[in-house]
From TrEMBL:
Keywords: Hydrolase. This is Alpha/beta hydrolase. The active site is at S155. One of its GO terms (molecular function) is hydrolase activity.
Length: 319
Protein backbone atom coordinates (compact mmCIF):
# COMPACT_ATOMS: atom_id res chain seq x y z
CA UNK A 1 0.00 0.00 0.00
CA UNK A 2 1.29 3.44 -0.92
CA UNK A 3 2.31 5.69 1.92
CA UNK A 4 1.03 9.23 2.29
CA UNK A 5 3.02 12.16 0.97
CA UNK A 6 5.71 13.33 3.38
CA UNK A 7 4.54 16.46 5.27
CA UNK A 8 7.46 18.50 3.93
CA UNK A 9 6.59 17.52 0.36
CA UNK A 10 2.92 18.18 1.04
CA UNK A 11 3.83 21.76 1.93
CA UNK A 12 5.31 22.15 -1.55
CA UNK A 13 2.14 20.76 -3.13
CA UNK A 14 -0.03 23.00 -0.95
CA UNK A 15 2.01 26.01 -2.00
CA UNK A 16 1.61 25.05 -5.64
CA UNK A 17 -2.16 24.80 -5.19
CA UNK A 18 -2.35 28.11 -3.31
CA UNK A 19 -0.48 29.89 -6.10
CA UNK A 20 -3.35 29.05 -8.43
CA UNK A 21 -1.14 28.77 -11.50
CA UNK A 22 -2.59 26.92 -14.50
CA UNK A 23 -1.37 23.35 -15.00
CA UNK A 24 1.79 22.93 -17.01
CA UNK A 25 0.03 21.11 -19.83
CA UNK A 26 -2.03 24.24 -20.55
CA UNK A 27 1.04 26.47 -20.96
CA UNK A 28 3.27 27.39 -23.86
CA UNK A 29 6.89 26.25 -23.57
CA UNK A 30 8.04 29.78 -22.72
CA UNK A 31 5.37 30.11 -20.03
CA UNK A 32 6.33 26.74 -18.57
CA UNK A 33 10.01 27.67 -18.56
CA UNK A 34 9.32 30.92 -16.75
CA UNK A 35 7.19 29.14 -14.16
CA UNK A 36 9.81 26.49 -13.46
CA UNK A 37 12.58 29.07 -13.16
CA UNK A 38 10.50 31.15 -10.73
CA UNK A 39 9.76 28.08 -8.63
CA UNK A 40 13.36 26.90 -8.58
CA UNK A 41 14.56 30.37 -7.62
CA UNK A 42 12.97 29.82 -4.20
CA UNK A 43 15.21 26.82 -3.46
CA UNK A 44 18.06 27.80 -1.10
CA UNK A 45 21.47 28.28 -2.65
CA UNK A 46 23.70 25.23 -2.67
CA UNK A 47 26.98 24.88 -0.77
CA UNK A 48 30.04 26.94 -1.54
CA UNK A 49 32.64 25.05 -3.58
CA UNK A 50 36.29 25.51 -4.45
CA UNK A 51 35.27 26.87 -7.85
CA UNK A 52 32.29 27.15 -10.19
CA UNK A 53 32.89 28.24 -13.75
CA UNK A 54 30.93 28.44 -16.97
CA UNK A 55 32.42 26.92 -20.10
CA UNK A 56 31.37 26.13 -23.66
CA UNK A 57 31.58 22.52 -24.84
CA UNK A 58 32.16 21.87 -28.55
CA UNK A 59 29.31 19.90 -30.10
CA UNK A 60 27.97 18.92 -33.50
CA UNK A 61 25.48 21.78 -33.25
CA UNK A 62 28.04 24.36 -32.13
CA UNK A 63 29.02 25.54 -28.67
CA UNK A 64 27.03 24.11 -25.77
CA UNK A 65 26.92 26.02 -22.45
CA UNK A 66 27.99 24.05 -19.40
CA UNK A 67 28.98 24.71 -15.80
CA UNK A 68 31.84 23.02 -13.96
CA UNK A 69 31.44 22.56 -10.20
CA UNK A 70 34.70 21.71 -8.42
CA UNK A 71 34.56 20.88 -4.70
CA UNK A 72 38.35 20.71 -4.45
CA UNK A 73 41.47 20.79 -6.59
CA UNK A 74 41.96 17.02 -6.23
CA UNK A 75 38.55 15.59 -7.14
CA UNK A 76 38.95 11.86 -7.86
CA UNK A 77 36.32 11.66 -10.61
CA UNK A 78 34.02 13.67 -12.82
CA UNK A 79 30.23 13.57 -13.21
CA UNK A 80 28.39 14.69 -16.35
CA UNK A 81 25.00 15.90 -15.11
CA UNK A 82 21.85 16.47 -17.17
CA UNK A 83 19.06 18.52 -15.59
CA UNK A 84 15.42 17.49 -15.70
CA UNK A 85 12.47 19.33 -17.17
CA UNK A 86 10.89 17.02 -19.74
CA UNK A 87 13.44 18.05 -22.39
CA UNK A 88 11.44 21.32 -22.65
CA UNK A 89 12.17 23.33 -19.49
CA UNK A 90 15.10 23.62 -17.10
CA UNK A 91 18.45 25.37 -17.00
CA UNK A 92 21.84 25.44 -15.35
CA UNK A 93 20.68 28.14 -12.93
CA UNK A 94 17.46 26.34 -12.03
CA UNK A 95 19.32 23.16 -11.05
CA UNK A 96 22.32 24.90 -9.51
CA UNK A 97 21.54 24.17 -5.82
CA UNK A 98 21.17 20.40 -6.17
CA UNK A 99 24.11 20.06 -8.55
CA UNK A 100 26.30 22.00 -6.14
CA UNK A 101 25.13 19.70 -3.37
CA UNK A 102 25.96 16.62 -5.44
CA UNK A 103 29.46 17.92 -6.13
CA UNK A 104 29.99 18.51 -2.42
CA UNK A 105 28.56 15.11 -1.44
CA UNK A 106 30.55 13.14 -4.01
CA UNK A 107 33.79 15.08 -3.77
CA UNK A 108 33.86 14.94 -7.57
CA UNK A 109 33.82 17.61 -10.23
CA UNK A 110 30.36 17.87 -11.78
CA UNK A 111 29.71 19.27 -15.25
CA UNK A 112 26.16 20.55 -15.68
CA UNK A 113 25.12 20.43 -19.34
CA UNK A 114 22.79 23.03 -20.88
CA UNK A 115 21.52 20.88 -23.75
CA UNK A 116 19.12 22.19 -26.39
CA UNK A 117 15.43 22.15 -25.48
CA UNK A 118 12.31 21.09 -27.37
CA UNK A 119 10.14 21.97 -29.20
CA UNK A 120 12.64 24.29 -30.86
CA UNK A 121 15.02 21.34 -30.96
CA UNK A 122 13.13 18.06 -30.98
CA UNK A 123 14.52 14.53 -30.61
CA UNK A 124 17.32 13.62 -31.08
CA UNK A 125 18.82 17.07 -30.36
CA UNK A 126 18.98 16.72 -26.56
CA UNK A 127 20.29 13.16 -26.81
CA UNK A 128 22.94 14.25 -29.31
CA UNK A 129 24.01 17.13 -27.08
CA UNK A 130 24.14 14.87 -24.05
CA UNK A 131 26.39 12.38 -25.78
CA UNK A 132 28.59 15.08 -27.30
CA UNK A 133 29.12 16.50 -23.81
CA UNK A 134 30.07 13.08 -22.43
CA UNK A 135 32.53 12.42 -25.25
CA UNK A 136 34.17 15.82 -24.85
CA UNK A 137 34.43 15.65 -21.06
CA UNK A 138 35.98 12.18 -21.26
CA UNK A 139 38.36 13.07 -24.10
CA UNK A 140 41.95 14.17 -23.81
CA UNK A 141 40.82 17.71 -24.70
CA UNK A 142 38.09 17.64 -22.08
CA UNK A 143 38.07 17.69 -18.32
CA UNK A 144 38.40 14.10 -17.14
CA UNK A 145 42.20 13.91 -17.48
CA UNK A 146 42.09 10.15 -17.05
CA UNK A 147 39.75 10.24 -14.07
CA UNK A 148 36.71 7.92 -13.83
CA UNK A 149 33.56 9.30 -15.48
CA UNK A 150 29.99 9.11 -14.15
CA UNK A 151 26.78 10.14 -15.94
CA UNK A 152 23.84 11.40 -13.90
CA UNK A 153 20.54 13.19 -14.27
CA UNK A 154 17.01 13.58 -12.97
CA UNK A 155 13.76 12.88 -14.84
CA UNK A 156 14.40 13.74 -18.52
CA UNK A 157 18.01 14.24 -17.49
CA UNK A 158 18.03 10.68 -16.18
CA UNK A 159 16.82 9.67 -19.62
CA UNK A 160 19.73 11.51 -21.23
CA UNK A 161 22.20 9.98 -18.78
CA UNK A 162 21.26 6.38 -19.51
CA UNK A 163 20.81 7.09 -23.23
CA UNK A 164 24.37 8.45 -23.24
CA UNK A 165 25.50 5.24 -21.57
CA UNK A 166 23.67 3.21 -24.23
CA UNK A 167 25.28 5.21 -27.01
CA UNK A 168 28.70 4.82 -25.45
CA UNK A 169 28.18 1.06 -25.30
CA UNK A 170 26.87 0.88 -28.86
CA UNK A 171 29.59 3.02 -30.43
CA UNK A 172 32.60 2.08 -28.33
CA UNK A 173 32.48 5.45 -26.61
CA UNK A 174 33.82 6.60 -23.26
CA UNK A 175 34.04 4.20 -20.33
CA UNK A 176 31.51 5.05 -17.62
CA UNK A 177 31.87 3.68 -14.11
CA UNK A 178 28.35 4.54 -12.87
CA UNK A 179 25.05 5.95 -14.07
CA UNK A 180 23.00 7.83 -11.47
CA UNK A 181 19.37 7.85 -12.59
CA UNK A 182 16.97 9.94 -10.51
CA UNK A 183 13.34 9.05 -11.32
CA UNK A 184 14.34 8.71 -14.98
CA UNK A 185 12.03 8.83 -17.99
CA UNK A 186 12.81 5.56 -19.76
CA UNK A 187 9.71 4.78 -21.83
CA UNK A 188 7.04 6.57 -23.84
CA UNK A 189 4.29 4.25 -22.55
CA UNK A 190 2.05 6.39 -20.36
CA UNK A 191 -0.46 3.71 -19.42
CA UNK A 192 1.38 2.13 -16.52
CA UNK A 193 -0.39 1.95 -13.17
CA UNK A 194 1.60 4.82 -11.68
CA UNK A 195 0.52 7.06 -14.56
CA UNK A 196 -3.12 6.23 -13.88
CA UNK A 197 -2.66 6.46 -10.12
CA UNK A 198 -0.95 9.87 -10.11
CA UNK A 199 -2.83 11.89 -12.71
CA UNK A 200 -4.04 14.91 -10.75
CA UNK A 201 -3.07 18.54 -11.18
CA UNK A 202 -2.33 18.63 -7.44
CA UNK A 203 1.00 16.87 -8.11
CA UNK A 204 4.30 18.17 -9.46
CA UNK A 205 3.98 15.91 -12.51
CA UNK A 206 1.07 13.97 -13.99
CA UNK A 207 0.18 12.05 -17.14
CA UNK A 208 -1.09 15.12 -18.99
CA UNK A 209 2.18 16.89 -18.26
CA UNK A 210 4.15 13.95 -19.63
CA UNK A 211 2.02 13.83 -22.77
CA UNK A 212 2.76 17.54 -23.19
CA UNK A 213 6.50 16.89 -22.81
CA UNK A 214 6.57 13.93 -25.20
CA UNK A 215 4.49 15.80 -27.80
CA UNK A 216 7.16 18.50 -27.87
CA UNK A 217 10.25 16.36 -27.58
CA UNK A 218 9.24 13.55 -29.93
CA UNK A 219 6.09 14.50 -31.87
CA UNK A 220 6.85 11.65 -34.28
CA UNK A 221 5.38 8.61 -32.56
CA UNK A 222 7.84 6.32 -34.34
CA UNK A 223 10.75 8.28 -32.89
CA UNK A 224 9.43 7.74 -29.38
CA UNK A 225 10.10 4.01 -29.47
CA UNK A 226 13.72 4.54 -30.54
CA UNK A 227 15.87 3.19 -27.68
CA UNK A 228 17.69 6.52 -27.60
CA UNK A 229 14.35 8.10 -26.65
CA UNK A 230 12.85 5.17 -24.72
CA UNK A 231 15.83 3.18 -23.40
CA UNK A 232 13.58 0.63 -21.71
CA UNK A 233 12.86 -0.58 -25.26
CA UNK A 234 16.50 -1.32 -26.06
CA UNK A 235 16.79 -4.96 -27.18
CA UNK A 236 19.52 -5.50 -24.60
CA UNK A 237 20.87 -3.53 -21.65
CA UNK A 238 23.85 -5.83 -21.22
CA UNK A 239 27.16 -4.08 -20.97
CA UNK A 240 25.81 -0.89 -19.45
CA UNK A 241 27.60 0.60 -16.44
CA UNK A 242 26.43 -0.08 -12.91
CA UNK A 243 23.38 1.95 -11.95
CA UNK A 244 22.32 3.87 -8.88
CA UNK A 245 18.60 4.44 -9.41
CA UNK A 246 16.19 6.57 -7.37
CA UNK A 247 12.40 6.44 -7.58
CA UNK A 248 9.62 8.28 -5.75
CA UNK A 249 6.31 6.72 -4.80
CA UNK A 250 4.02 9.64 -5.69
CA UNK A 251 5.33 9.97 -9.22
CA UNK A 252 3.91 8.80 -12.56
CA UNK A 253 7.46 7.73 -13.51
CA UNK A 254 7.64 5.29 -10.59
CA UNK A 255 6.75 2.10 -12.44
CA UNK A 256 9.03 2.61 -15.43
CA UNK A 257 11.87 3.21 -12.97
CA UNK A 258 11.17 -0.13 -11.31
CA UNK A 259 10.90 -1.79 -14.73
CA UNK A 260 14.25 -0.36 -15.78
CA UNK A 261 15.92 -1.59 -12.61
CA UNK A 262 14.53 -5.06 -13.33
CA UNK A 263 15.74 -4.98 -16.95
CA UNK A 264 19.20 -3.91 -15.84
CA UNK A 265 19.38 -6.73 -13.28
CA UNK A 266 18.20 -9.22 -15.89
CA UNK A 267 21.10 -8.03 -18.06
CA UNK A 268 23.49 -8.64 -15.12
CA UNK A 269 24.13 -4.94 -14.64
CA UNK A 270 24.75 -4.12 -10.94
CA UNK A 271 21.89 -1.98 -9.63
CA UNK A 272 21.40 -0.13 -6.37
CA UNK A 273 17.78 1.03 -6.23
CA UNK A 274 16.59 3.51 -3.62
CA UNK A 275 12.83 4.06 -3.43
CA UNK A 276 11.44 6.99 -1.45
CA UNK A 277 8.00 5.83 -0.38
CA UNK A 278 6.59 9.20 0.73
CA UNK A 279 8.13 11.44 -1.89
CA UNK A 280 6.98 13.23 -5.02
CA UNK A 281 8.50 13.79 -8.43
CA UNK A 282 11.28 16.39 -8.42
CA UNK A 283 12.00 15.98 -4.70
CA UNK A 284 15.74 15.50 -5.38
CA UNK A 285 15.99 19.13 -6.52
CA UNK A 286 14.61 20.54 -3.27
CA UNK A 287 17.87 20.48 -1.34
CA UNK A 288 17.71 22.61 1.76
CA UNK A 289 13.92 22.26 1.74
CA UNK A 290 13.22 18.52 1.96
CA UNK A 291 15.16 16.31 4.35
CA UNK A 292 14.75 13.45 1.88
CA UNK A 293 16.36 15.55 -0.85
CA UNK A 294 19.39 16.17 1.32
CA UNK A 295 19.53 12.47 2.19
CA UNK A 296 19.12 11.36 -1.43
CA UNK A 297 21.83 13.70 -2.69
CA UNK A 298 24.17 12.63 0.11
CA UNK A 299 23.63 8.93 -0.60
CA UNK A 300 24.01 9.44 -4.35
CA UNK A 301 27.25 11.26 -3.62
CA UNK A 302 28.45 8.32 -1.55
CA UNK A 303 27.64 5.94 -4.42
CA UNK A 304 29.55 8.13 -6.86
CA UNK A 305 32.56 8.28 -4.56
CA UNK A 306 32.47 4.49 -4.19
CA UNK A 307 32.40 4.07 -7.97
CA UNK A 308 35.33 6.38 -8.67
CA UNK A 309 37.37 5.18 -5.68
CA UNK A 310 36.34 1.52 -5.27
CA UNK A 311 39.41 0.59 -3.24
CA UNK A 312 38.53 3.08 -0.53
CA UNK A 313 34.74 2.91 -0.38
CA UNK A 314 33.46 -0.25 -1.99
CA UNK A 315 31.11 -0.22 -4.97
CA UNK A 316 27.37 -0.22 -5.67
CA UNK A 317 25.82 -3.62 -5.29
CA UNK A 318 22.48 -5.05 -6.27
CA UNK A 319 19.88 -4.50 -3.58
Amino acid sequence: MATSVHPQAQEILDGKAAAGAPPLWELTPDEARAGVEASNAMIPAGPALESVRDIVIPSQAGGMPARVYSPSDHAPGIVVYYHGGGWVVGSLDGWDPSVRALAAASGCDVVGVDYRLAPEHAFPAAADDAYDALVWVASAAGLAAGRPVVVAGDSAGGNLATVSALRARDSGGPAIVLQVLVYPVVDCDMDRRSYREYDGDDLILNRRDMRWFWDRYAPDREARVNPYASPLRAPSLAGLPAAYLITAEHDPLRDEGFAYADRLRDARVPVEHRHYGSQIHAFFSFTGVLDDADKAVSEAGTAIRAAVEPDSAGSPVDD
